[in-house]
Specification:
Layout (H helix, E strand, L loop, with lengths): L2 E5 L2 E3 L2 E4 L2 E5 L8 E4 L3 E8 L2 E9 L21 E4 L10 H12 L7 H7 L3 H13 L8 H15 L5 H12 L3 E9 H11 L3 E8 L6 E3 L4 H10 L5 E2 L2 E2 L2 E5 L5 H4 L4 E5 L3 H10 L2 E3 L8 H12 L11
Parallel strand pairs: 8-9, 8-14, 9-10, 14-15, 15-16
Antiparallel strand pairs: 1-7, 2-3, 2-10, 3-4, 5-6, 6-7, 10-11, 12-13
Helix pairs in contact: 1-4, 1-10, 2-3, 4-6
Length: 318
């Protein structure tokens, strides 16, 4: 009869794992309660980013088994692995901007926090990407967790039309080949997990965010942090000579070079001149999907509109 928020480390193979122990099948239809087996009992649960909401907890004997709970992941490497970045790779936009826009359209008063972020911009080099991400997320101060979960689900569905057709096609080719599909993003995990679920990824990793303070605590899942998380999450047998066996990596950014170092093959999306030069020297595939802006001025105007919560219907679309 109680409700609890339980920290979840990752979802893999249709199940959520807490400290390496599978506790919940995530294969039920969207919106339905999910039966979870925990160390203390069974519960109806709902996923919420890097948390799971456990409701109506009933205690059972520790030795009792629950049908339908997925087994731990196999240590045998899959035939192949597809490792995707999100922002700029699967879609053109930074999802932090898109999600802020989505939330402010629901709760316009949260737009009042924009001056806080702007005031900290001169300190960006001092605070770093992780620090500025904490400042940016202050617009979610004291948000109701149930509302956050609902927004995350709605947002994930809303961005599906903005996924690049080119990278979506490559994702489907990997799926058809039976490859393990991994989404590794620096964006907050509470909505990245929903995007991963919409796109059918087997494993979704993002920046874990802990709310409770005006500037929420987080561990920025960027650069080398992605490599560390993959090494902590995947079985050791998935790695050979410092690389993920049969892995093809996808990114748009030099920030993901540590991640690409794990891959046997790579594809870069709309790369910068520096990344283009590196890709050509390394024999990587280069693709250039059309972006939804025509110039730097057009891009800047759309960024401002997103920050202010302005939109035209379902804008911005491709």
């Amino acid at each position: 009869g109680e409700t609890r928020f339980l920290p979840a480390h990752s979802s893999l193979g249709g199940a959520t794992y807490f400290g390496g122990c599978c506790v919940a099948s995530l294969s039920a239809p969207r919106g339905e309660g999910l039966l979870a087996a925990t160390g203390k009992g069974i519960a109806q649960i709902r996923p919420l980013g890097n948390y799971v909401i456990a409701e109506s907890l009933n205690f059972i004997d520790a030795g009792q088994t629950i049908a339908g709970v997925s087994p731990p992941p196999s240590s045998k490497p899959p035939a192949g692995i597809a490792l995707f970045d999100l922002d700029g790779t699967l879609l053109a936009w930074d999802c932090q901007l898109l999600f802020r826009h989505f939330v402010i359209r629901q709760e316009p008063w949260r737009g009042l926090f924009l001056p806080v972020f702007l005031a900290f911009l001169p300190l960006a080099s001092l605070l770093g990407a992780g620090g500025m991400k904490r400042v940016f997320l202050c617009y979610l101060w004291r948000i109701d967790r149930a509302s956050l979960a609902e927004y995350a689900r709605g947002f994930a569905a809303s961005v599906m039309p903005q996924i690049y057709r080119e990278t979506a096609g490559m994702l489907e080719e990997h799926r058809a080949a039976g490859d393990l599909l991994i989404l590794a993003s620096a964006s907050p995990e509470f909505y990245v997990s929903e995007i991963g679920r919409e796109l059918g990824f087997d494993l979704t990793l993002g920046t874990a965010v802990e709310f409770g303070t005006f500037f929420p605590d987080l561990e920025n899942h960027k650069g080398a942090a992605k490599v560390t998380r993959l090494q902590q999450t995947l079985p050791a047998d998935y790695f050979r000579d410092g690389k993920l066996v049969g892995c093809h990596g996808y990114t748009d950014s030099t920030a993901d070079l540590p991640m690409l170092a794990l891959c046997e093959r790579a594809t870069v999306v709309n790369p910068s001149p520096g990344l283009t030069e590196l890709a050509e020297k390394s024999g990587w595939t280069i693709i250039r999907p059309a972006r939804p802006w025509k110039s730097r001025i057009g891009f800047a105007l759309r960024v401002v509109a997103l920050l202010c919560g302005l939109s035209r219907g379902d804008w911005p679309q491709r």
